[in-house]
Design goal:
Elements: H1 11-21, H2 30-43, E1 47-51, H3 54-64, E2 72-76, H4 81-89, E3 93-97, H5 108-116, E4 123-126, H6 138-147, E5 151-155, E6 163-166, E7 169-172, E8 181-185, E9 198-202, H7 205-214, H8 243-253, H9 256-274, E10 281-283, E11 290-291, E12 297-301, H10 303-306, H11 310-319, H12 335-341, H13 347-355, E13 356-359, H14 369-381
Parallel strand pairs: 2-3, 2-4, 4-5, 5-8
Antiparallel strand pairs: 1-9, 6-7, 6-11, 8-9, 10-12, 12-13
Helix pairs in contact: 1-8, 2-8, 3-4, 3-7
Length: about 375
Amino acid sequence: MLPYGRQTIEDDDIAAVAEALKADFLTTGPTVEAFEVAFAETVGARHAVACSNGTAALHLAMMALDVKPREAVIAPSITFLATANCARYVGADVVFADVDPDTGLMTPETLAQAIARVGERRLRAVLPVHLRGDACDLPGLEALARDAGAVLVEDAPHALGTTMTFGNTAENVGDVRHSAMATFSFHPVKTIATGEGGMITTNDPAIAARLKVLRSHGMVRPEGCEPWWYEMPEPGFNYRLPDILCALGLSQLKKLPRFAARRRALGAAYAEALAPLAPVVRIADQPAWSDPVLHLMVALIDFEAVGKSRRDVVEALKARGVGTQVHYIPVHRQPYYRKLYGELDLPGAEAWYARCLSLPLYPGMEDGDVATVAAALKDVLGL
């Protein structure tokens, strides 16, 4: 069975975790800082703060910005639930932005439409999602957010290793040149894995310091206090990432260039293998400025043209040993948000959802696996 995504864990990763298990600190030890420093250097940010998962990273980002109840946060509807939920965790309202139907990305045009729906609420943050690994138009989004009095927080779990070129300037996802923070996830299907885990990058030392306090119950130790003393100016959470998992993260991070190259090679192979299936099947569009390390290989399929439902295709592919997934059900469709905000008309999100299907993509795939997937898809669709 070829799953849609899978971790790559090798002997040196296992050895790194075993070594961490023998160390003095299983959590809150020096390996955490080592992972943070290495990650910041990798993406080109000044600071990186590790936490327990990508959802915690988003929640911490909202808290670090001091987003308050009834203020507004804009998130695209095509994303995982956590992008929107992090605003609700702090009592803020979510304003859903539409997306480009062929990339799944928030655009300056769809952001402008969402800003127009904010109304009298104070807009605090905009959360662009680098869906699949392709980067959003960060300069365009930043300009609109800034004019509206808000900042960007990049939701970047899909895009570790992705590079961008705006004008003549080469940039990395996570270097936060256009945003207050960028958040990452190290779930097993992501580009590097720690089992569960997250990271927040920022170039603001005050934000970095606040994130570190908030991830550990909100505790601080005033200078000159007794060795046992701590104070809690405000409540935080236990969102720490243990040294054991940071050891795995450090080992995985060293492999990022290899993982990135393999994902790019597989992406190119898919482009060639799926080309004969056009126009019924095509790969999601890539913006001109984006050189992605794809987390997801999303095919846009005209199911109606072949007279098959997506469920029929998913089940038939599974029977042929090909696993798939759908990324994502529009979040504005979820019962919680429909009850809270009513029905929304986001045609780009609906058009994306109607056609998207994520095909297998992970570094451990064999060279012939892409052809196997393409052949199975051609057979199932009757092309």
